[in-house]
Amino acid sequence: MLKKRIYKCSYNTFKTIIQTAGSIWGYYLCKETSVWPSLLGGRNAWGPELWESKTTQPYYEFNEGFVLFSLITMGYHIE
Question: Cα–Cα distance between 14 and 29 in angstroms, integer?
Answer without folding.
Answer: 22
